[in-house]
Design brief:
This protein has 78 residues and is mostly helical. The chain has three helices and no strands.
Length: 78
């Protein structure tokens, strides 16, 4: 999997890098790797999850709730 390999390489580059150029290359690889892996993930989920289970309003509400909770956790921890 070329995309997953790019993600691993990017994370290693961020951890080992000490300069802006290395980090710039790392985040570029990270973005490209994510762009290659993410559609495959969505396709895999779409194959097993029925789209009419709860409907779009419920899905949007769950995303809003998870986003709010993650923001609250960050606000409390920071």
């Amino acid at each position: 999997m070329w995309g997953a390999g790019q993600l691993i390489a990017a994370v290693v580059m961020v951890a080992a890098g000490t300069g802006f150029g290395t980090w710039l290359a790392a985040v570029t690889l990270l973005g490209a790797g994510t762009a290659m892996v993410y559609p495959t993930l969505l396709a895999a989920i779409g194959d097993v999850a029925h789209p009419e289970s709860y409907g779009i309003p419920a899905a949007v509400a769950v995303v809003a709730l998870v986003t709010a909770l993650s923001g609250l956790v960050v606000a409390l921890r920071m």
